[in-house]
Amino acid sequence: MKMIRNSTAVALVLTAGLAGAAEAARYEVEVVRTRYGIPHVTAADYGGLGYGQAYAFAQDNVCLIADKIVTVIGERSRHFGVDGVTTVAFADIKNLESDFFFKAALDIAPLRAAFARSSKNYRELVTGYVAGYNRFLRDTPRDKLPEPCRGKDWVRPIGIDDMLRLNEERMIQASGGAWLRQTNAAAPPGAAAPKSLAALGLPEPAETFGLGSNGWAFGREVTANRSGLLLGNPHFPWETTNRFYELHLTIPGETDVMGVTIAGAPGMSIGFNKDVAWTHTVSTDRHFTLFELALDPADPTAYLVDGKRRRMTRKDVTVETPTGPQTRRYYSTQYGAVVVVPQAGLGWSAQTAYAIRDANRSNLRSGDTWLAITRAKSVGEIRAIATRTLGIPWVNTIAADRHGDALYADITATPNVSAEKLKACAPSAPAAALAALAAGRIYVLDGSRAACDWDVAAGTVAPGLMPGNAMPSAIRTDYVANSNDSYWLANPKAPLPAFSPLIGPTATAQGLRTRSGIVEIERRLAGVDGLEGRTFDVERVKTMLFWNRNLAADLFLDDALKACAGAPTVTTAAGKTVDLAPACAILAGWDRRMDNDSVGAMLFVEFWRLAERNPTLFATPFDAADPVNTPRGLKSDADSAAKLAQALAAAVELMDRQKLALDAPYGSVHFAVRGERRIPVHGGEGTAGVLNAQQSRFVPAVGGYVPYHGSSYIQVVTFDEKGPVADAVLSYSQSTDPASPHHADQTELYSKKGWHRLPFHKADVAADMIGPALKLSE
């Protein structure tokens, strides 16, 4: 390798692997960095685009992606020990359980077959990504890698199979991946299940454990410039490979798109081009169903379908650990893997077992879906792409275009199961009862009848998936919005009708974040939010999101404070007397916002976490005719007041144990840790109706609450005569390398409610450029 320097570029020319000096390079890429370390990758083709994207990403996050490769190939126990913890499907999982699951569940043969069916462009993008990542490893000696993985033997070159496994892990996060423990625990009668998995509950749906987002799209009726306007505010983890990474990808004359990708994913996940801007929010769809199996009385590993006996497939999986190999046996059926949830009545007995069928298995269509979206010219085209490919895995799509149209679409890979089929194919009563669980919505079908399998619709790209034109969508010229409740109130002026229960419910109570978004939007349209006029523009939308209003406080705090007057001192269940007067005075003076200087905000967070558990809390219950304003108010009877007082007393005790002052400014106890720095982080719990959602956990070692999940990449995009105008911020910054200048720079920006005008046009990129361009050739 030799270096060539000139006034504008540092060219890294790699000649290894070429037949001769005259042979054209396989990849030719230029990478320019602008402020906050955002790479702008320009190439002549998709292979070069993937090559440059991977190289740039590895410069910032090589340890992150190397660690995730170890996860999906099932080798965490070998390198990090069996009891270490990783994140799978947004949950903390022991390494040994993760290894067994991925070795059992990720079958490479169908993934390779699905990849072969992908477009030439996508295959080249992925192939180039592999080459670009491996090029970075060749250029960077192992002892020069970032500290978290310096000198580690688990950092290695990757291949196409690794990328296919990474994609599969992302696709099944809201389906099979969430059933990891229940898959690992499945054992036939008489066989011992792993002891660590003895007690199992139902997997929590994605929207119940905080995985969410806000997506707003405004049309020409309500925007100041008569163009489209989009707020993209995904709430995703601050750690692991579900982190976002900002970048700009250009093939002249072919594609020009900017935004973010999920770590290790070639292409673009959320962003904008010259004509459209889009974002995603986690949907309420169930991307799987269970099947109740009628077993052969003589053999619990065989099952009957229409009276015909079928044997389960057996797979023995071995995981290498520091103390030697461990082996488990897994069973699967024509529907999918066998799972168990004994505490929910879904055990494996001599008569009955349960299997999971996953709509997102081998969903390599997703890559081509997002490639097509990056080239879309209108929101109508985005809807057509989602409908045709069914490649969107588990998220709603919200988009706006320069013509002034706004799109909401819940078109995803979803089982084609109607309400009528659910009724006709109801299994045993205990299994059928699962569908009635408000949080779970676990749908179980009778697997003993072939007619109860998913319906196959003509023309769909994969058998058993619901056709895109049978799923909810709307294109409007006023607005659409979603904050992870169902499609029902995408626009409350025109509620969408009921679809299959698998897609989501209607006429049900909405989350406080959904209600908060609609309240803010409607206040803006009515001109009563304190801002000028009644239309939306970039600056007003940015202000609305970062107001950090706590809707739970607006709705309920006045009633809660009445409990203080009735019970100024409380005796807890442990017999301790707590004086509530100081806490009540602090909450009475709180500004009801989650700003860094808000006094009383953390006290309310802990109080509300306890108080909202009371199912009979509200004075006015939910009313489907007024879903935005109900439920509201708190009951004032003696029993309700006592429960509120107990919740506040418990919050006071908790903060006392944590040695936190009740009147501490929010940002002094709620912060991101970057080395020795404590960076204040505004925003709060989405369940309390804070749009700028941040979930945090108390970390004793640092003496405060550290965000781990919430507002991540935030973009507000509109269009002028030249193209997109986009302001954005990435809350946790670009790089996971503690030594990088881009490890904390945007975290500091976010802390100050700052934004960055993204440089999309060539002149803007040149003006914002930091350092020399990097030219890569191989």
Description:
With 778 residues, the chain is α+β, with helices and mostly antiparallel strands. It is built from 20 helices and 36 strands. It has a twelve-stranded mixed sheet, sandwiched between helices. Strands 7, 8, 24, 31, 32, 33, 34 and 35 form an eight-stranded antiparallel sheet that branches. The protein is globular, with a radius of gyration of 26 Å. Mean pLDDT is 93; it is low at 1-22.
Largest sheet: 12 strands, mixed
How is the CATH topology of the domain at 2-191 named?
Penicillin Amidohydrolase, domain 1
Biggest β-sheet: strands ordered side by side in the sheet: 1-2-36-3-4-9-10-11-12-20-21-23
- Radius of gyration, in angstroms, nearest whole number: 26 Å
Tell me the layout of helices and strands.
Layout: E1 2-5, E2 9-13, E3 28-34, E4 38-43, H1 46-72, H2 76-80, E5 85-88, E6 91-94, H3 95-105, H4 108-117, H5 120-139, H6 160-171, H7 180-184, E7 212-218, E8 229-237, E9 244-251, E10 255-262, E11 270-272, E12 276-282, E13 288-296, E14 299-305, E15 308-311, E16 313-319, E17 326-332, E18 338-339, E19 352-358, H8 365-374, H9 379-389, E20 395-401, E21 406-409, H10 419-424, H11 429-432, E22 444-446, E23 473-476, E24 479-482, H12 512-526, H13 538-545, H14 551-566, E25 569-571, E26 577-579, H15 581-589, H16 601-611, E27 618-620, E28 632-634, H17 638-657, H18 666-669, E29 671-674, E30 677-680, E31 694-699, E32 704-711, E33 713-720, E34 723-730, H19 745-751, E35 756-757, H20 762-768, E36 773-777
Parallel strand pairs: 2-36, 4-9, 13-22
Antiparallel strand pairs: 1-2, 3-4, 3-36, 5-6, 7-8, 7-24, 8-32, 8-33, 9-10, 10-11, 11-12, 12-20, 13-14, 13-19, 14-15, 16-17, 18-19, 20-21, 21-23, 25-26, 27-28, 29-30, 31-32, 33-34, 34-35
